[in-house]
Design goal:
This protein has 10 helices and 2 strands. It has helices spanning 2-10, 23-35, 40-57, 60-86, 91-112, 118-147, 150-166, 174-195, 197-225, 251-272; strands spanning 12-15, 19-22. Strands 1-2 form a two-stranded antiparallel ribbon. Helix 2 (23-35) packs antiparallel against helix 3 and helix 7 runs antiparallel to helix 8 (174-195). The relative contact order is 0.11.
Length: 273
């Protein structure tokens, strides 16, 4: 409820020649100034502002407005982060991703022309977006494995050697030791990835092909059968995308996007329902 009260207080309206004017802030400032002339204006201002804020904050329409604005910010941040990942990809990988996106869009267009209801259409749209996200993560992992060199592996080994000494420090706090131990485990896994990258690349290529097949199946089902069906995203991938050790320096961006998508999901569901 606090976010709705805050949004109500900061709510503004467009005024010609002035732009966006925060009405409640201006009103509160006005009553504050008048109060120096007569203290009764302070009490009157508090009463009016409280009433206005409560009317707005508890209004379902205003709450939906706030939710839509919040979702817009999430989406803008997510798109900027996604673009940073796209810039890592080779032209070939970018082309593959664009082709997958085109097939996803074709599937959605077909579903829009069937008897699929709004809820099912949104479910399938979200499913196809999830498949595209998995596909992009696999491509980023593939990029990292293809570009990491011997010097990078040597650098990882040096960091591992240093942390192995640090975690044995008896004078360090428990929290610091736990943090460095967790970092050590990640670096060891990244080094293992480098050592096993040939196998990992084969697994990634297999998973990319599997996702492409899943999208093709969804498009064929919608086109040939012509009746609404739920698109499944339950794909058992050979590649470990959960630990995050496959993404190299792109890991923070991947993690941030995962959190953003998780945060926007409840908003999408509320809008559908």
């Amino acid at each position: 409820m606090w976010k709705y009260l805050k949004a109500a207080f900061l709510f503004g309206t467009d005024v010609p020649a002035l732009g966006r004017v925060p009405v409640n802030i201006v009103g509160a400032a006005g009553f504050a100034i008048l109060g120096f002339g007569h203290p009764a204006f302070w009490l009157l201002g508090v009463g009016i502002e409280t009433a206005v804020l409560c009317l707005l904050a508890f209004n379902p329409r205003f709450q939906r407005y706030v939710a839509s604005k919040e979702m817009q910010v999430y989406q803008e941040d997510a798109e900027a982060q996604r673009q940073s990942l796209l810039r890592l990809l080779s032209p070939e990988a970018s082309t593959r991703l664009a082709a997958l996106k085109d097939r996803c869009n074709q599937a959605i267009q077909v579903y829009q022309g069937t008897e699929a209801g709004k809820y099912l259409l949104e479910i399938n749209r979200t499913a196809l977006q999830k498949l595209q996200w998995l596909y992009l993560k696999l491509l980023v992992g593939r990029h990292y494995l293809e570009t990491i060199g011997k010097s990078d592996a040597d650098s990882l080994q040096k960091k591992i050697n240093s942390l192995e000494i640090d975690v044995k420090d008896k004078t360090a706090s428990t929290a610091l030791i736990q943090s460095k131990t967790a970092t050590l485990a990640i670096l060891r896994q990244r080094l293992t990835n480098f050592q096993n990258r040939s196998t990992l690349l084969q697994e990634i290529d297999s998973d990319l092909t599997r996702i492409e097949a899943q999208v093709d199946l969804a498009l064929e089902d919608a086109t040939i059968q012509g009746r609404p069906q739920t698109i499944s995203t339950e794909i058992e991938l050979a590649t470990d995308l959960v630990s995050g050790t496959l993404f190299g320096e792109a890991q923070p961006t991947i993690a941030a996007l995962e959190q953003t998508y998780a945060a926007t999901q409840p908003v999408r569901q509320r809008q559908v329902n």
